[in-house]
Amino acid sequence: MRWPSHIWAERDLHRREPSDPAFDRKIDRADRARLPFCEAIAEISRAPVTVATDVPLRRMALIVATLVREGTARAVRQHAARKPEFAACLEVPGDGPVAARIRHMLAAAG
């Protein structure tokens, strides 16, 4: 899978200071990992929704793409406020504790 290498590279980069001798190497690693990551997101976004279980994957791809492009969770909420079709991606069905926790986390990001 192409996602973990980008996620781990970004995490490692954010743990470094620009004065760290390994900082430039970490930037290069994150840059190299970003393209395959973005290609995977684009591939998911282009795939047709053929069954109901495809919808959460499509929604997650849109959320992750926005998060990566904008760089903050707050930007995802702001994007949703401006685009009603995107806001639907953040709707959480259900009344159980997991749904409540997810709604809480989404609200905290805004």
Description:
It is a single chain. This protein is an all-alpha fold. The protein has two domains: 1-46, no CATH class; 52-110, no CATH class. Helices cover 73% and strands 0% of the residues. It has six helices and no strands. It has helices at residues 3-14, 23-46, 54-70, 73-82, 84-87, 97-109. Helix 1 (3-14) runs antiparallel to helix 2 (23-46), helix 2 runs antiparallel to helix 3 (54-70) and helix 3 (54-70) crosses helix 4. The longest helix is centred in the N-terminal third of the chain and has 24 residues, at 23-46. It starts with a helix and ends with a helix.
- Mean pLDDT value: 81
Largest sheet: none
Shape field: globular
Structural class call reads: mainly alpha
Low-confidence stretches: none
Q: Would you summarize the structure shown here?
A:
This protein has 110 residues and is mainly alpha-helical. It has helices at residues 3-14, 23-46, 54-70, 73-82, 84-87, 97-109.
Write the SSE topology.
Layout: H1 3-14, H2 23-46, H3 54-70, H4 73-82, H5 84-87, H6 97-109
Helix pairs in contact: 1-2, 2-3, 3-4
